[in-house]
Amino acid sequence: MPARIRSANSSSGTGVLRNLNRSLVLKTLWQRPGLSRSELARELGLAKSTVSVVVAELLEEGLLREGEEMPGGVGRPSRALELDREKNLVLAWEISVDYLAVRLQNLMGEVRRGQDLELGPDPDPSACLDRLAQASRELLRGLGHSVYLRGLCLSVPGLVEPQHGHLTLAPNLGWQDLPLLEMLGHKLAQHRIRVETPPILENEANTAALGVYTLGEWRVANLAYLSLGIGLGSGLVLDRQLFWGSHGHAGEIGHVPLDPQGPPCRCGKRGCAETFVSLKAWRADPTEAGLERMADKLGLLLAQLLNLLDPDVVVLGGPLVEEIGPRLLPLARAAARRYALEQAARTAQIVLSPFGRDTAILGAGVLAIRAFLEAQRSGVGA
């Protein structure tokens, strides 16, 4: 994939301002596609001439495209602007506990192509990355040289340090202490896949939280996402921003102890939430009584989340939700109301993810898009 990175004048004041204006225009049209040049100028508080110059440059580079003429107004007809959905793509990779997935998404988060792969027992990290790179290369074939790969995000189920590209621990994969982003970079080079902005690594519950928040178009400030699968994780959007905590480990709700004398957990502790609420727990006791016990524990966990964070919305997703979500949800809601403070239980919505199994990987695509848009400030791709 060709990468276009030009940084002429980026060290000058003019270049810095130019890059900032590019980033602002692209981010605004990502959030509100269909604005005209005049509307962009008003929205951003910039001169119309400045916006026109930036838009002309972005149109020439293929990052924007013009739509139909907009009715009304005086003088030259206005045209709606939006990010080009055909030429600009990002890669989203997901390593889950029982499968691998690749999606090619455009800059509006829409999936162009995708592939899911089975994950065998005792998966090897290097082999997983190699298979993801091979699948990506196959998906990219036939798209032509006019397509630009703008970014990549890898989503994994474990403790990560995104700023260092390091996986600390993924207990349900049996992985620990891996320079995962460095390994990913080697695989991209081996398979001759060129990505314009540096790839990023993120926890799967975080990518899911951002994906469901952004693509689900929630008009709220605070959202919590619970990923219910082989394990149990959560991602938090607080004050409209993804929340990582001090070391990138916020949201490890699956290892909140619900019963210190309970079953052993793969993390080495006992009675963690994911020993009671997970696909593994359901498969061990797929009965009506088992469902009620699981819903009770989930309600207890939700009550702690509601009391502590006071979110507007809690979204439940993941393989367990795909399997029994409609049965589990009303029971868990009722249990949360029993255990939580009345005000917290009354004001928060508890809902199922509208994106099913793809919630995390769609969010990985969103993170890759956001990283590309932010990189425009420093002149990457400009």
Automatic annotation (TrEMBL):
Domain of life: Bacteria
Database matches in InterPro entries: ATPase_NBD, Cro/C1-type_HTH, ROK, ROK_cs, WH-like_DNA-bd_sf, WH_DNA-bd_sf
Pfam family, one: ROK
Gene3D superfamilies: 3.30.420.40, Winged helix-like DNA-binding domain superfamily/Winged helix DNA-binding domain
Cited PANTHER family: BIFUNCTIONAL UDP-N-ACETYLGLUCOSAMINE 2-EPIMERASE_N-ACETYLMANNOSAMINE KINASE, ROK (REPRESSOR, ORF, KINASE) FAMILY
Family as reported in the entry's similarity comment: Belongs to the ROK (NagC/XylR) family.
Identification of the protein by name: N-acetylglucosamine repressor
Organism placement in taxonomy: Bacteria, Thermotogati, Deinococcota, Deinococci, Thermales
Gene name of the record: nagC_3
